[in-house]
Design a protein that fits this description.
The termini are far apart. This protein is of the alpha/beta class. The strands form three sheets. The chain has an eight-stranded parallel beta barrel with strand order 3-4-7-8-9-10-12-13, surrounded by five helices. The protein has a three-stranded antiparallel β-sheet with strand order 5-6-11, with no helix packed on it. The chain has a two-stranded antiparallel ribbon with strand order 1-2. Strand 3 (51-53), helix 3 (64-69) and strand 4 form a beta-alpha-beta unit. It is built from twelve helices and 13 strands. It has helices at residues 3-18, 23-31, 64-69, 113-120, 144-155, 180-195, 213-227, 247-253, 264-277, 293-301, 311-316, 320-329, and strands spanning 40-42, 45-47, 51-53, 74-80, 93-96, 101-104, 128-133, 161-165, 203-207, 230-233, 257-260, 284-287, 306-309. Helix 6 (180-195) runs parallel beside helix 7, helix 7 (213-227) crosses helix 9 and helix 10 (293-301) packs across helix 12. The chain has one domain: Aldolase class I (TIM Barrel), CATH 3.20.20.70. The structure holds flavin mononucleotide. Flavin mononucleotide binds next to strand 4, strand 6, strand 11 and helix 11.
């Protein structure tokens, strides 16, 4: 079975399971943990624990009930775009088992923000949901702000926080929005849309692990000057350094973002750098290669307030979040 098909099959099976009377209750008791000191407060939101599901796993908010059962403290949906789009041709998701990594070039396949909103109207209680927003592939960068604002306005009543994603390697040109000038303009527009609402939602910026220190310095300045709430570090990397998988196999896979264990160290370095440079003045959500409690603790120790997981769950199984939460307690 292809990795992409396996993803939908596994979640489809879990979906059927939780609808069998008693199963949801049982699984929830089995997997659900809360942090030792109760909720962790970040940006005014009370997270039931510090382990979340990273964006890209449940792009369309299809499985919030199932993911709630697995013990996640928060789930980030998306990346969503204004209009549904198919993404890149398949195959576009590849496993590197000997490295504990994944390469994907999904290309923001999603059913569009308005479909997701309909599902979010029935979201489960007690789970924090973040909305990760992007732009359609066909939207040129000079019109990108409009796309982000469409997604922001549509999701605002239904999510708890936002993530502005400018760091995907799979949408041509989108990473150029990480440069100081376009990024300041984009984030300022989102912040001003937020200020026009009755309730202000926390806004995070998700960045690539491939940024150099000078660019990270700019990020710290922009977060402070524009007044967004925090940073999610990091997305997948375009680097292929340090892999043990056969070079010819890696090359034959082609373009895409690498995630899982190979990105762990670089993501931790980015979290550490941002935390030191900002003197801890804004929260950071650490993500990249977290495969267990030790890796989660590593990100928290260098300055992350929360962590997110994705790729390593593919290898370690659906109990990974619960296991990490339990481990952090100890
Ligand atoms: C198949 C796949 C799809 C992803 N899609 C998105 C996405 O749509 N938006 C996003 O911000 N990050 C996306 N990511 C990146 C993850 O959210 C995460 O930042 C990255 O994989 C590093 O964490 P990990 O090593 O725990 O997977 C995706 C990752 C994978 C593996």
């Amino acid at each position: 079975m292809s990795p992409e098909r396996a993803h939908y099959t596994a979640m489809g099976l879990l979906s059927i399971a939780v609808r069998i009377p008693g199963v949801e209750f049982f699984l929830k008791r089995y997997f659900n943990q809360t942090s030792e000191n109760g909720a962790t407060e970040v940006c005014g939101l009370k997270f039931p624990n510090r382990v979340g599901l990273a964006a890209g796993f449940d792009k369309d908010a299809r499985w919030l009930r199932e993911l709630n059962v697995l013990g996640f403290g928060h789930v980030e949906i998306g990346t969503l775009t204004p209009v549904a789009q198919a993404g890149n041709p398949q195959p576009r998701l590849f496993r590197l088992p000997s490295d504990g990594g994944l390469i994907n070039r999904m290309g923001f396949n999603n059913g569009g923000v308005h479909d997701a909103v309909e599902r979010l109207k029935r979201r489960p209680d007690g789970l924090i949901v973040g909305g990760n927003i992007g732009k359609n592939k066909v939207t040129p960068n000079n019109k990108a702000v409009d796309d982000y604002l469409i997604c922001f306005n549509a999701l605002h009543p239904y999510v708890d926080y936002f993530t502005v994603n400018v760091s995907s390697p799979n949408t041509p040109g989108i990473r150029e929005l990480q440069d100081k000038e376009p990024l300041t303009a984009l984030l300022s527009a989102v912040v001003s849309a937020n200020q026009s609402k009755d309730i202000q939602r926390p806004i995070f910026l998700k960045i690539a692990p491939d940024m150099e220190n000078g660019q990270l310095d700019d990020i710290v300045d922009i977060v402070k000057s524009v007044g967004i709430d925090g940073v999610i570090a990091t997305n997948t990397t375009i680097s292929r350094e340090g892999l043990s998988t056969d070079y010819s196999k890696v090359e034959s896979i082609g373009a895409g973002g690498l995630s899982g264990s190979p990105v762990r160290e670089r993501s931790t370095d980015v979290v550490r750098y941002l935390s030191e440079k900002s003197a801890g003045s804004f929260p950071i959500i650490g993500v990249g290669g977290i495969d267990g409690v030790e890796a989660a603790r590593e990100k928290l120790e260098v300055g992350a307030s929360l962590v997110q997981i994705y790729s390593c769950m593919i290898y370690k199984g659906p109990g990974l979040a619960s296991k990490i939460v339990k481990g952090l307690k100890a």
